[in-house]
Design goal:
The chain has 445 residues and is mostly helical. Helices cover 71% and strands 1% of the residues. It has one domain: Hydantoin permease (Orthogonal Bundle). A hairpin with a 7-residue loop joins strand 1 and strand 2. The radius of gyration is 22 Å and the shape is globular.
Length: 445
């Protein structure tokens, strides 16, 4: 158990994970950088495809609603954290919140493992997405090349091996500022590319109708809802707030305003322009549409810059989601009574962080269809952590009156999200079954 007694700064009871990884030294600006990197990633390039499942009205409407709900949800989490800090018990992790509010069993058997699965799943997905971007750039210049996807994944994993040694979450503040700029960069490239193609002589015929069977239409609707919900997911809001130097009051709100300004700029520009340009021919990632049928629809330098910025930002996203794993490893293997950079702590840190990245990279190379699995993880993990638990935590912490609008609003969001978990999981499992015939270990996709 780790907490900070904020009423007496001389009394600290911190484990090594909290002491070394979750250093509380950051400003609200740093918080904004961390939040943006944890939420805004290359997954936003799937928003136009989600529109093909939801249509114009449904896509734009749900993009707005999901943004408002998650902004509200993350602020509720922040208020709960501030409340406990004011009472003299600053919670630093999601599992700390679950332990104090729901009980130790919830923290140990549900919230802790759920968060770890989501975060480590993102670490596996990182080298995979970065490897796919590297392979894409390679094939632009060498279309008949013999290198396979797993080789590019291994290259990405090597870069992650170096980045994984960055000691603390706070140490990532400059990397995450660059990450924020990179996501604006490839979002602009994606939007400009879509608009250019849509107005060119090579523009594909546009059809915005949803031509599916009734069953496919319904499951596709929920799949689209889950996809957009996942683009707003974080799962590490308490850990990010833990990096803020006390007093924390109001700083998280400012950080979220930075993050959602980036979201408003990137999500809507990419989603609307991509769906406008390609209609129901939109591919699962909008960058795939830029390649055309016989030849690229955009200049090679444009495609290289787009994929390069995507690749680099994905590495930053991955190292952010590595932090909960690093924190857990430090808690288990490091000694908080020794110096952070003492031999006693540096050696196990180097060994176990390296092993974590190596295992993730090998899994990414073995399972290039991991995206389908992550969709299932997203339904089971991202939605509970970001849409359901914040509502429950707030109602229980502040004992919200049952006749109040806030109580029933929070309850409605939690119940609706629970339904979405079930239906989204069914849709994800169905997609895995449909794609299973294409699965093979170390596939070159």
């Amino acid at each position: 158990m780790a907490f900070i007694n904020t009423q007496d700064p001389n009394q600290l009871e911190l484990d090594a994970g909290a002491l070394f990884v979750l250093k509380s030294k950051g400003s609200w600006l740093h918080c904004g950088y961390h939040l943006t990197t944890s939420i805004v990633g290359p997954v936003l390039l799937t928003i136009p495809y989600a529109f093909t499942l939801l249509g114009w009205v449904g896509g734009v409407l749900w993009l707005i609603i999901a943004g408002l709900v998650t902004f509200y949800s993350y602020n509720l989490l922040s208020l709960v954290l501030e409340h406990h800090a004011h009472l003299g018990r600053r919670q630093l992790r999601f599992r700390d919140m679950a332990r104090d509010i729901l009980g130790p069993r919830w923290a140990k058997y549900y919230v802790g493992p759920l968060q770890f699965a989501i975060c480590y799943g993102a670490v596996i997905a990182g080298p995979l997405v970065a490897g796919q971007s590297l392979k894409f750039i390679y094939e632009l210049y060498n279309p008949n090349g013999t290198m396979k996807l797993y080789q590019f994944i291994m290259m990405s994993g090597f870069i992650m091996l170096v980045l994984a040694q960055i000691p603390s979450f706070h140490s990532l503040r400059h990397i995450n500022l660059v990450s924020l700029l990179l996501c604006l960069c490839y979002s602009a490239f994606a939007a400009v590319g879509s608009i250019y193609i849509g107005n060119s002589k090579n523009a594909p015929p546009r059809n915005y109708s949803i031509n599916r069977s009734e069953t496919d239409r319904v499951l596709g609707l929920f799949n689209g809802i889950s996809m957009i919900a996942t683009t707003y997911a974080s799962g590490i809001i308490p850990e990010i707030q833990a990096t803020i130097a006390p007093p924390v009051k109001g700083k998280m709100f400012k950080g979220l305003c930075i993050c959602y300004a980036v979201i408003a700029t990137s999500y809507f520009s990419v989603g609307i322009s991509g769906y406008w340009a390609f209609g129901n021919q939109t591919q699962p990632t909008i960058l795939a549409n830029f390649m055309g049928v016989k030849k690229p629809l955009l200049p090679i330098w444009f495609l290289v810059m787009t994929n390069l910025s995507t690749l680099l930002q994905m590495l930053a996203v991955t190292v952010v989601y590595l932090q909960p794993t690093n924190e857990l490893l430090e808690t288990i293997f490091a000694d908080p009574k020794m110096g952070e950079f003492s031999i006693r702590n540096v050696v196990p840190r180097l060994i176990f962080r390296s092993l974590t990245v190596i295992v993730a990279t090998v899994l990414a190379a073995m399972l290039p269809f991991f995206g389908d699995i992550m969709a299932l993880f997203g339904a089971f993990g991202c939605i509970p952590l970001d849409f359901i638990l914040p509502m429950i935590f707030y109602n229980l912490t502040f004992k919200t009156p049952k006749k109040s609008i806030v109580f029933w609003g929070n309850t409605l969001i939690a119940v609706s999200s629970s339904v979405l978990v079930g239906v989204g999981a069914i849709a994800s499992v169905r997609q895995i079954v449909l794609d299973a015939k294409t699965y093979s270990l170390f596939a070159d996709v």
